[in-house]
């Protein structure tokens, strides 16, 4: 009677077998998720909202920072000259200041030009027409070089400008931008803190979902343990389930952020139009989308790893 010989596995085939098992585990995990549409949708929605909140705050802060970047192009210092300084002396002073390396541009605003702009934008045309003499002084708008535009250097430059014999006083126009930048820095830290807390929440959500899945498949897991399945073999489908939850939650978060950005664009455009400009909100972009999705996948993997690890340690203890 002849024996039936078992087919032997060659070492070169082991990577293919390992990859095939991973693909099968990934497909089976995804099939199980779609087999429970309501619980899966609820879990994915909660993960998506948890990831979308800090992502939306990040997008908002990034857009505000971009707006302040545009405002930085305005004159940092307005130098008001004495009334007795005539037009020729003001032009000569402007030429001398243009030669300074810390100034990128110097704009001369003569009294007549300032009065015309004030009539156009101030809304006091009637009152200004009643004046016999133009009360506005000559102003030099100083635009610093970007290399010399930090707050400390601007304050030093302001003090130097005030000491000029032609100068009456100077006004720095960037103090409110500095305050806004401080608020933006606080918002960035708050976004990081909120993201960390919500990330821990995602870990708990995924971990609890995987724990319930383990309880539902407890009998199947016990049979695998009896036939000698390794911890990695038992853990694998649950890790893929956590990764699928994180991936779907990350995609849901990017959709929520994109929808929120689009919904706010109309209001932002109307507000920018009131100030004579336009501004288009920037979304997450490709890099931001990848970060959100990868963050969801990592949190899903870590949450499922913790849940399965607790079960395996409990089983070993029993």
From TrEMBL:
<keyword id="KW-0812">Transmembrane</keyword>
<dbReference type="GO" id="GO:0005886">
    <property type="term" value="C:plasma membrane"/>
</dbReference>
<dbReference type="GO" id="GO:0032153">
    <property type="term" value="C:cell division site"/>
</dbReference>
<dbReference type="Pfam" id="PF18075">
    <property type="entry name" value="FtsX_ECD"/>
</dbReference>
<keyword id="KW-1133">Transmembrane helix</keyword>
<keyword id="KW-0472">Membrane</keyword>
<feature type="domain" description="FtsX extracellular">
    <location>
        <begin position="76"/>
        <end position="165"/>
    </location>
</feature>
<dbReference type="InterPro" id="IPR004513">
    <property type="entry name" value="FtsX"/>
</dbReference>
<protein>
    <recommendedName>
        <fullName>Cell division protein FtsX</fullName>
    </recommendedName>
</protein>
<feature type="transmembrane region" description="Helical">
    <location>
        <begin position="33"/>
        <end position="59"/>
    </location>
</feature>
<feature type="transmembrane region" description="Helical">
    <location>
        <begin position="284"/>
        <end position="308"/>
    </location>
</feature>
<comment type="function">
    <text>Part of the ABC transporter FtsEX involved in cellular division.</text>
</comment>
<dbReference type="InterPro" id="IPR003838">
    <property type="entry name" value="ABC3_permease_C"/>
</dbReference>
<feature type="domain" description="ABC3 transporter permease C-terminal">
    <location>
        <begin position="194"/>
        <end position="310"/>
    </location>
</feature>
<dbReference type="InterPro" id="IPR047590">
    <property type="entry name" value="FtsX_proteobact-type"/>
</dbReference>
<keyword id="KW-0131">Cell cycle</keyword>
<comment type="similarity">
    <text>Belongs to the ABC-4 integral membrane protein family. FtsX subfamily.</text>
</comment>
<keyword id="KW-1003">Cell membrane</keyword>
<keyword id="KW-0132">Cell division</keyword>
<dbReference type="GO" id="GO:0051301">
    <property type="term" value="P:cell division"/>
</dbReference>
<dbReference type="Pfam" id="PF02687">
    <property type="entry name" value="FtsX"/>
</dbReference>
<feature type="transmembrane region" description="Helical">
    <location>
        <begin position="190"/>
        <end position="210"/>
    </location>
</feature>
<comment type="subunit">
    <text>Forms a membrane-associated complex with FtsE.</text>
</comment>
<keyword id="KW-0997">Cell inner membrane</keyword>
<feature type="transmembrane region" description="Helical">
    <location>
        <begin position="243"/>
        <end position="264"/>
    </location>
</feature>
<dbReference type="InterPro" id="IPR040690">
    <property type="entry name" value="FtsX_ECD"/>
</dbReference>
């Amino acid at each position: 009677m002849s024996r039936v010989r078992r087919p032997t596995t060659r070492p070169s085939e082991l990577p293919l077998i390992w990859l095939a098992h991973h693909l099968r585990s990934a497909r089976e995990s995804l099939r199980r998720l779609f087999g429970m549409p309501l619980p899966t949708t609820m879990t994915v929605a909660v993960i998506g909202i948890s990831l979308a909140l800090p992502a939306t705050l990040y997008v908002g802060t990034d857009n505000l920072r971009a707006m302040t970047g545009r405002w930085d192009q305005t004159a940092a210092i307005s130098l008001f000259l004495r009334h007795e300084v005539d037009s020729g002396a003001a032009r000569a002073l402007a030429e001398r200041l243009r030669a300074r390396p810390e100034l990128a541009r110097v704009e001369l605003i003569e009294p007549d030009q300032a009065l015309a702009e004030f009539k156009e934008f101030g809304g006091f045309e009637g009152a200004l027409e009643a004046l016999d003499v133009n009360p506005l002084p000559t102003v030099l708008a100083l635009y610093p070089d970007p290399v010399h535009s930090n707050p400390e250097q601007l304050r030093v430059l302001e003090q130097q400008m005030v000491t000029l014999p032609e100068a009456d006083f100077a006004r720095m126009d960037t103090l409110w931008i500095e305050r806004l930048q401080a608020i933006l820095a606080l918002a960035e830290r708050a976004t990081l803190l909120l993201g960390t807390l919500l990330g821990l929440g995602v870990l708990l959500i995924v971990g609890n979902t995987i724990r319930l899945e383990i309880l539902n498949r407890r009998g199947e897991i016990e049979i695998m343990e009896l036939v000698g399945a390794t911890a990695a073999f038992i853990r694998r489908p649950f890790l893929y389930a956590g990764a699928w939850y994180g991936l779907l939650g990350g995609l849901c978060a990017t959709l929520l952020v994109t929808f929120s950005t689009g919904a706010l664009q109309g209001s932002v455009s109307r507000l920018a139009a009131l100030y004579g400009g336009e501004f288009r909100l920037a979304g997450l972009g490709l890099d931001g989308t990848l970060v959100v999705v990868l963050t969801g996948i990592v949190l899903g993997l870590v949450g499922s790893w913790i849940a399965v690890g607790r079960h395996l340690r409990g089983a070993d203890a029993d």
